[in-house]
Amino acid sequence: ITPPCHLPPTDPPSTPSDPPPTPTVACWCASYPNVTLCSWPEPAGSPPTRYVATYSERRTQLLTRPCRLIRPGSASSDLVPAPWASSQKLWRCQLPDLKLLTDYVLNVTAVSSAGSSSHLSSFMLEDIVKPDPPVEVRVSLPDSRNLLVEWSPPPTWTNLDIFPLKYLIRYRWEDRGSLKSVNLGPFENTRKQLKGLASGRTYLFQVCAMELLGLGACSSWSSPVEHSIPKAGPLRLPHTS
Ligand SMILES: *[C@@H]1O[C@H](CO)[C@@H](O)[C@H](O)[C@H]1NC(C)=O
Ligand SMILES: *[C@@H]1O[C@H](CO)[C@@H](O)[C@H](O)[C@H]1NC(C)=O
């Protein structure tokens, strides 16, 4: 009796056998009500072969529309940067023509040969407003008592006339090894005079922008601008000689 013939063991499949991880998606509107993007990092290692991103109104989920995909690293002049730092490759997609005060459902699905994983989330445009930070922050000392902080609105916020912005100022300094911080505002102007800063101290100034009625969140802080208040001059004694 001959033993049954054993087939040689088959090689394990060379493709990953697990479906791709569910994308971690964040959405924000950098110019109410027109410019809304969603973004998610591409996992390192074995990225999914493709993504499918769609959105629909929550009440009538029948009409599903594609969210326009933007690959990591693609150059696009009208691209709004993500409001967070990331060393990973970021995918983005654009949601045009969102209606005001409407609940939407977003579906970002990662697809690989082993399967797919969907991220589902719902949002309302008004809740995800987050302008880009103000630009051209300037600090000057017009006289020895008052310090002047000036800035310009984020240029990506295109409907400033209809949807004005308000601003917060943060200034920080080091005090015996610990960082002290003061937040001021909101202000509707793009300049603010500050009094009572200590002479001889170095401060870091930052500004953030928020939709005037308080929709969504304040932008990220602008990059810090450093300014030192000069030491008070030596006491001037009357000239006696
Ligand atoms: C924003 O969208 C509205 C309605 O679709 C349109 O009328 C307006 O021109 C758009 N504004 C900008 C700056 O794209
Ligand atoms: C999400 O999108 C994927 C790909 O288009 C689809 O297969 C899946 O059914 C969608 N999920 C829901 C809950 O709509």
From TrEMBL:
Residues 1-20, 222-241 are annotated as: Disordered. It comes from the Eukaryota. The keyword Cell cycle does not apply. SUPFAM superfamilies: Fibronectin type III. Pfam families: fn3, FN3_IL27B_N. Keywords: Glycoprotein, Repeat, Signal. Gene3D superfamilies: Immunoglobulins. One of its GO terms (molecular function) is cytokine receptor activity. One of its GO terms (cellular component) is membrane. Residues 133-232 form the Fibronectin type-III domain. The keyword Transcription does not apply. Belongs to the type I cytokine receptor family. Type 3 subfamily. This is Epstein-Barr virus induced 3.
